[in-house]
């Protein structure tokens, strides 16, 4: 008989990518993640996702750490840097090649790089037509035939992938619409999808809270858990709506300055920023300034708006004036 452990410890992670400054949208997702963790007794790992070489900016990791601390968010383990963990990812990649769950691909470097790029790269979700599927017997033969260092693609079989999101509800996606995706670039750098699954498995992460722009990535990640024989380790997912500009697009300079470092450098009280984030999290009657700890008892996932939040020029002006209302 299988024994159910009386207590399974739960764990989550804050996983900034040091590809730019943290903005108010990132901060809101991290705050929700942190509040759920502190409410439910999940341990928190800080993991710096610094594998996307060309896009990683020097010192953006330190700045992200300082920004999180400034907001009053803390963690129990880390920071751990993905760039220090390459051998772990290589084991998973080799295993999938050996088991014919992944194959070498010599399609143009540009296309492979775009596909392997960080999850928010505009072209990251283009479907690969399967040109190199079944084409080479080995990495070596792919290399010889093309004169290129092959990327490695995960072979996606036709099926419907399903999961139940803790916020967004029942989700499903036809895997054939994903296309075979890159799990390692030609220079052997692991792709975001692969690194996240290896890390979340190895760190025994049970709860993942992040922006809903990553839902499509979740379907890919579920396939990787299965391919690695770790289906039982698939975490609970909570995907939350993003903060957007008034035109409905991702936060950008034209919407005003939404970087936390902008407010920090101008001496804005982090309590004012948190008050704005708290309102954006559906918490009612928030005073002008609050501490993160004061929000732990007040946040309810069920009160989180299901629509995107809009960052306005007025929000910016009020924060700079020292008032979040
Ligand atoms: N590092 C990713 C990002 O900044 C988050 C990855 C994840 O939560 O799985 O968007």
Tally of contiguous helical segments: 11
Classify the fold: give the CATH topology of the largest domain.
Rossmann fold
CA-atom Rg in angstroms: 21 Å
Order of H and E elements:
EHEHEHEHHEEEEHEHEEHHHEH
Shape: elongated
Beta-strand percent range: 15-25%
Bound molecules: glutamic acid
What is the terminal-to-terminal distance? 57 Å
Physical arrangement of strands within the biggest beta sheet = 1-2-3
For this structure, what is the CATH homologous superfamily of the largest domain?
A: HUPs
Weakly predicted, low-confidence segments:
none
Number of strands: 12
CATH architecture of the largest domain: 3-Layer(aba) Sandwich
Structural class, from secondary structure content?
alpha/beta
Overall mean pLDDT: 92
What is the highest CATH level, the class of the largest domain? Answer: Alpha Beta
Task: Report the biggest beta sheet as strand number plus sense, adding barrel if it closes.
Answer: 3 strands, parallel
Name the helicity range: 25-40%
How many domains? The number is 2
Describe this structure as you would to a colleague.
The chain is an alpha/beta fold and 325 residues long. It has 11 helices and 12 strands. It has helices at 24-40, 60-71, 86-98, 109-116, 139-146, 192-202, 215-227, 260-265, 270-280, 292-295, 313-320, and strands spanning 11-14, 43-48, 77-81, 102-105, 151-154, 160-165, 169-174, 181-184, 207-211, 236-240, 243-244, 309-310. Strands 1-2-3 form a 3-stranded parallel β-sheet. A 3-stranded antiparallel β-sheet has the order 4-5-8. The chain has a two-stranded antiparallel ribbon with strand order 6-7. It is elongated. The mean pLDDT is 92. Bound molecules: glutamic acid. Glutamic acid binds at residues 15-17, 49, 119, 196, 210, 214.
């Amino acid at each position: 008989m299988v024994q159910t452990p009386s207590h399974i410890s739960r764990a989550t992670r804050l996983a900034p990518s040091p590809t730019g400054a943290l903005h108010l949208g990132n901060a809101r997702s991290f705050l929700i993640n942190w509040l759920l963790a502190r409410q439910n007794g999940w341990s928190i790992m800080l993991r710096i996702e610094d594998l996307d070489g060309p896009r990683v900016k020097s010192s953006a990791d330190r700045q992200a750490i300082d920004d999180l601390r400034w907001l009053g968010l803390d963690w129990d383990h880390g920071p751990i840097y993905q760039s220090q963990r390459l051998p772990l990812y290589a084991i998973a990649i080799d295993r999938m090649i050996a088991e014919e769950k992944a194959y070498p691909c010599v399609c143009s470097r540009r296309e492979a790089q775009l596909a392997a790029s960080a999850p928010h790269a505009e072209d990251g979700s283009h479907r690969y037509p399967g040109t190199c599927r079944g084409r080479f017997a080995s990495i070596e033969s792919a290399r010889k035939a093309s004169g290129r260092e092959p990327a490695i693609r995960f072979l996606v079989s036709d099926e419907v992938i399903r999961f139940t999101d803790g916020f967004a509800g029942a989700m499903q996606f036809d895997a054939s619409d994903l296309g075979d995706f890159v799990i390692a670039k030609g220079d052997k750098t692991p792709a975001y999808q692969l690194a996240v699954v290896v890390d979340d498995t190895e760190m025994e992460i049970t709860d993942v809270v992040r922006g809903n722009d990553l839902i499509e990535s979740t379907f890919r990640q579920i396939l990787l858990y299965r391919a690695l024989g770790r289906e039982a380790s698939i975490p609970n997912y909570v995907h939350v709506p993003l903060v957007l500009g008034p035109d409905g697009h991702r936060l950008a300079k034209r919407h005003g300055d939404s970087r936390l470092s902008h407010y920090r450098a101008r001496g804005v009280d982090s309590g004012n920023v948190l008050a704005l984030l708290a309102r954006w999290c559906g918490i009612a009657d928030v005073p002008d300034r609050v501490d993160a700890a004061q929000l732990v008892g007040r946040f309810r996932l069920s009160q989180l708006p299901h629509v995107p939040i809009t960052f306005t020029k007025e929000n910016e002006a009020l924060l700079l004036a020292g008032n979040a209302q």
